[in-house]
Amino acid sequence: MSCMARSPIVQAQIRGPLARRDLPGLYARVCALLAEAAGGVLLCDISEVAIDAVAVEALARLQLGARRHGARLRIKNAPDELGELLELFGLAEVLAA
Fold first, then answer.
1. CA dist., res. 92 & res. 9, Å (int)
2. Mind listing the pLDDT tens digit for each residue in 16-71?
3. In sequence order, what are the residues at sequence separation of 6 or more whose Cβ sits closer than 8 angstroms to the Cβ of residue 23?
4. d(Cα 4, Cα 31) in Å, to the nearest integer?
5. What is the tally of helices (H) and strands (E) in the chain?
6. Least C-beta-crowded within 10 Å: which of 41, 48, 56, 62?
7. What stretches of the chain adopt beta strand conformation (E)?
8. What is the largest CA-CA distance in the chain?
C-alpha cells in the first residue's frame, strides 16, 4: 500500500474592481503564499471580478507566479466570458478556465 502526498492548496479570492496598478501587489501577495506552500495548487476564485483585459492580465501573472513556485493555477467560478477573452488573447491553452 503506497501513501500519496497531497499537494497543498493555496486559495486566493480575487476581489474587484481590479486596476492595472493593483496587479504588482496582487502578484507579490500570492507569490508569498505560494512560497510558504512550496508547490501545489493555486485556486483562484474570480467570482467577484469583472471579466476584462485587466482580469486576464492578472490571471496570466498569477499563472507565471504559480509556475515559478512549482504550483499549478486553477480558476474557480469562471464565467463563459473568460474563456472567450482567453481565446481572443491567445491564452486559452495557458490559462484553462
1. 23
2. 889 999 999 999 999 999 998 888 899 999 999 999 999 999 999 999 999 999 99
3. 54, 57, 58, 61
4. 25
5. 3, 3
6. 48
7. 9-15, 40-48, 71-76
8. 51
Residue 21 DSSP label:
G
| Residue 1 to residue 63: CA distance in whole angstroms | 34
For 67, how many CA atoms within 13 A lie in the half-sphere containing its CB?
A: 8
> What whole-number distance in Å separates Cα of residue 46 and Cα of residue 48?
5
Residue appearing with cell numbers 507566479: 65
Radius of gyration of the chain measured on its C-alpha atoms: 14
Residue 39, C-alpha cell as written in the block: 508547490
What is the residue type of 42?
Answer: L
Peptide bond into 17 cis (omega under 30): yes
pLDDT at 97: 57
Contacts with 34 (C-beta within 8 Å, 6 or more apart), sequence order: 10, 42, 65, 66, 69, 71
